[in-house]
Design a protein that fits this description.
Structural class: alpha+beta
Number of strands: 19
Strand content: 25-35%
Number of domains: 2
CATH class of the largest domain: Alpha Beta
CATH architecture of the largest domain: 3-Layer(aba) Sandwich
Largest sheet: 15 strands, mixed
Distance between the termini: 31 Å
Order of helices and strands: EEEEHEHHEEEHEHEHEEEEEEEEE
Helix content: 10-25%
Number of helices: 6
CATH topology of the largest domain: Aminopeptidase
Oligomer: single chain
């Protein structure tokens, strides 16, 4: 079992229902978050969780649905929770497919209850809003007992994201090497490395929470546009199996699931995005995965309700690879249109 101490939490409105992390075998249950409503005064939100434990080995936390409109992880983890058997496991696997349960049920990025973006609220608040309580439980009860954390995302409803493992470099060379080993095992076409210092919100995301609790963690971005493809789902499922094998939880995997070579990119600067500066309809010029040069056309915004008005052109300020592209055609001022990343030689830390 994990070399970490078992966590104790003091989150009065949260209880574990139907699952015992120390019991051998497989159990399915819920993280119950008290939430009194007019419809049900003693209601508790049922955040699904599965625990699979067998013999002694590492603890791995697999999590998705932090944003409710990102579906590859939710599907892959739901299938894994049903299919993975204790006999296949050496250690413990915790599976949380709908982490922000209200958002996942609604198919929205943020919670319809309190507007909370779970990936901006770690370490949470024990007596805070519903989403803050979920964050507090995940960090202090789940991540605290995990040796490894895999946090699955995609572009959600509004954007497409190139399929990539995500590594946040914290400045520790050994930790970074272990993160990169997991990313290479995951086997996405790209691995994007961020410096923790590059974005002010990074301290509030799940990967930062995992690091605070001493876990080796990577994320993944696996598509978007509020949909799933057979390719993106297969990549997710195979990547999870390879990571579980890499950390010693699964003894055997199929030879057919060998990882592809991942291309390492850096996105450690806050100025890698192009934002819309007016409302209108966006005509894209490139898609995710395209190589672009400084000055290349990114797209145009058309103000259709102003007859005869010329469109506004947007161009890239740097050379790079397009990692994020807006999917929704309607845009408002301030919407992200594109994000780019750079070659490995620019990656922070130790690449």
């Amino acid at each position: 079992m994990s070399g970490k101490n078992e966590a104790t939490t003091d989150i009065p409105n949260v209880r574990l229902i139907g699952v015992d992390f120390d019991r051998e075998g497989k159990s399915h249950g819920y993280i119950g978050i008290q939430h009194s409503t007019t419809r049900s005064c003693y209601y508790w939100l049922p955040v699904p969780i599965t625990c699979i434990k067998n013999r002694s080995g590492p603890t791995v936390l697999l999590i998705s649905g932090i944003h409710g409109d990102e579906y590859e992880g939710q599907l892959a983890l739901s299938k894994l929770a049903a299919d993975l058997q204790p006999v296949d496991v050496t250690g413990r696997v915790l599976i949380v497919p709908m982490a922000n349960f209200p958002a996942a049920k609604a198919g929205t990025r943020t919670s319809p209850i309190d507007g909370g973006d779970l990936n901006r609220l770690f370490p949470g608040e024990a007596n805070g809003s519903v989403t803050q309580q979920i964050a507090a439980y995940i960090e202090h009860a789940l991540m605290a007992i995990a040796d490894f954390v895999i946090d699955l995302h995609s572009g959600g409803s509004s954007i497409m994201h190139v399929a990539a493992a995500i590594v946040v470099a914290e400045g520790d060379a050994l930790r970074f090497q272990r993160q990169m080993a997991l990313a290479q095992a995951f086997g996405a076409p790209y691995t994007i490395v961020y410096a923790s210092r590059s974005q002010p919100h990074f301290g509030k995301i799940a990967l930062a929470a995992s690091a605070r609790q001493g876990a080796i963690a990577i994320g993944a971005e696996l598509g978007g546009a509020g949909s799933v493809t057979s390719h993106s789902l297969a990549l997710t499922e195979q990547g999870l199996v390879r990571v579980l094998h890499k950390v010693g939880v699964l003894a055997k995997i199929s030879d057919a699931s060998s990882p592809m070579k991942t291309r390492v990119l850096s996105s450690d600067r806050p100025d890698t995005m192009i934002w819309a500066m007016e409302a209108g309809l966006f005509e894209p010029a490139v898609i995710v995965g395209n190589e672009v040069r400084r000055g290349d056309l990114a797209g145009r915004i058309h103000v259709v309700d102003s007859p005869g008005r010329s469109s506004s052109e947007y161009r890239f300020d740097e050379d790079g690879v397009v990692t994020v592209a807006r999917f929704m055609t309607q845009v408002e001022r301030g919407d992200c249109l594109y994000r780019i990343a750079f070659g490995a030689e620019h990656a922070p830390g130790f690449v």
